[in-house]
Amino acid sequence: MSAPNAQASPPQYGQPIALADAKRVMAAAEAEAARNAWPMVIAIVDCGANLVLHQRMDQAQNGSIPIALLKAETAANFRRETKTMEDPLAQGGVNLRLLAMPNLLPLEGGVPLFKDGKVVGAIGVSCMRSNQDAQVAKAGAEAL
User: Fold this and answer.
1) How confident is the model over 101-114, as pLDDT tens digits?
2) Spacing of C-alpha 64 from chain mean position
3) pLDDT digit string (tens) for 112-143?
């Protein structure tokens, strides 16, 4: 029996995402963005948060280039969606300490990529509203 309030262990890291898999994830994310006419910046990193693929669709704002990468790095480094860090900020109080972490971007749109139940990388998307960024990121993640 588990203790009350015990947190589940985070998923394990797997082997770094293969380029062919990253390309499949990118294609699915780009297709979702195109279906909605959302010009997006999409970044895919491996399980060590190292860049594998990064692209800016036509007319995507330049400011979103580093944001997409930071969202992907955050999702890979913490093995969870970046939304799980954004939501506590709205509560304020002690949760504001998240803002002091230099290696964390608490904005929705970063999603870990799983293969065989292990984190092999992450995708980060930026340029529209955070929930739209997440929609595109999740479409990419589902391709894996």
Assistant:
1) 989 999 999 999 99
2) 14
3) 999 999 999 999 999 999 999 999 999 999 99
CATH number at residue 92: 3.30.450.150
Our count of domains for the chain comes to 1
* Domain contains 135: yes
DSSP string, 31-99: HHHHHTT---EEEEEETTS-EEEEEE-TT--TTHHHHHHHHHHHHHHHTS-THHHHHHHHH-GGGGGGG
Q: What is the pLDDT of residues 58-81, one digit of tens each?
A: 999 999 999 999 999 999 999 999
Record the tokens describing residue 111, joined without a space.
């999603």
For residues 61 and 51, give the distance between their C-alpha atoms in angstroms, rounded to a whole number: 20
Q: Whose structure tokens read 């910046």?
A: 41
**Assigned domain for 4 exists:** no
Rounded distance between C-alpha atoms, residue 75 and residue 60, angstroms: 22
Euclidean distance between CA atoms 73 and 51, whole angstroms: 8
* The token pair that represents 100 in the structure block: 């002091």
pTM above 0.90, yes or no: yes
The angle that helices 130-142 and 19-35 make with each other, rounded to 10 degrees, is: 130
